[in-house]
Amino acid sequence: MIEGSIVALITPFDNENKVDYEELKKLCQYHLDNNTNGVCILGTTGEAETLNDDEKIKIVECVTKEINGKISIIVGTISNVPDEVIRQSKLFDRFDIDAYLVITPYYIKTNETGLIKHFSYIADNVSKPIILYNVPSRCGINISYNALQVLSLHKNIVGIKESSGDFKYQSKVSSLISDKFKLYSGDDHTILASLGLNASGYITVIGNAFPKEMSDIYKNYKNNRDLSRKSFYELIPLMDAIYLDVNPIGIKYLMYIIGFKQAKYRRPLDEASRFIKRQIEEECYKYLI
Questions:
Q1: How far is CA 222 from the centre of its chain?
Q2: DSSP state, 175?
Q3: Quick check: 88 and 122 in contact, CB under 8 A?
């Protein structure tokens, strides 16, 4: 079962804006050394929609080789067209991965029955389990609870990354948790609340920089909840800082501060303003001190 602190892995680029595979290997080893429970690649944080097929294949190949089955791997297959999601998934069938992360349709808004058919069609036609990704702030559409009730029964749909920020909704989602359908928090600021709703873990952005701390929050939540809360609250100012700009701009700059080559982005993203950089720097230094 996929559980714990799962890092939404950034994609490193070199000075020519090409994928830096040596740096990607370094990132994988960083997470293996610091107790990350899993990585989610080719997602929003990984700037997936700026990558071509060849780059995506090489990234998955690189990560699976470096991870070598030691922790879980989730791969994002991002498109609002179901046949394109299926096509992308087939690019990665030969690799040792645990699940695909499938986002709600964006730009093309649909109704409740359309969502059920969309995800069911994808789940019927891919070779690995899928985790639904509910993020209305980016997609403009929410997976209704009624639709989720139906989808949670599908044999190949094993969970939801819930990033709506709506706890009334998430509390209803938690009622659907079973041996085969799991809840994962998709928002760094709400991971403790999600764990309180019996989430199996979280897909985290701040975990790129502080993997051990994020892993310990999950581990301690079961045995030492006060320590888990303390560790989480100490990270909140830094979380606030990296989200002053759109993800992954802030986390990449934070990674750069702590010693990784992560200050490069692909259009339409651009570097943060001086003000935001200063905020990230100040909160990082406070946290490390």
A1: 22
A2: T
A3: no
| Tokens 């297959």 belong to residue | 77
- Output the six-digit token pair for 204: 């985290």
Strand residue runs (E) in the chain: 4-8, 38-41, 72-76, 99-103, 130-134, 157-162, 182-185, 201-204
Tokens for 229? 């809360």
pLDDT in tens, 272-281: 999 999 999 9
**Residue 74 and residue 42: Cα distance in Å, rounded?**
9
- Residue appearing with tokens 């992560």: 262
> Mutual orientation of helices 274-288 and 249-257 as an angle, nearest 10°?
50
What are 22-46's pLDDT values in tens digits? 999 999 999 999 999 999 999 999 9
Residue with tokens 């909160």: 283
> How far apart are the C-alpha atoms of 191 and 153, rounded to whole Å?
25
Can you tell me whether residue 163 is helix, strand or coil? Answer: coil
Contact 181, 159 (CB under 8 A): yes
Catalytic residue list = 133, 161
Picking from 252, 254, 258, 188, the residue whose alpha carbon sits closest to that of residue 218 is 188
The pTM of the full predicted model, rounded to 2 decimals, is 0.96
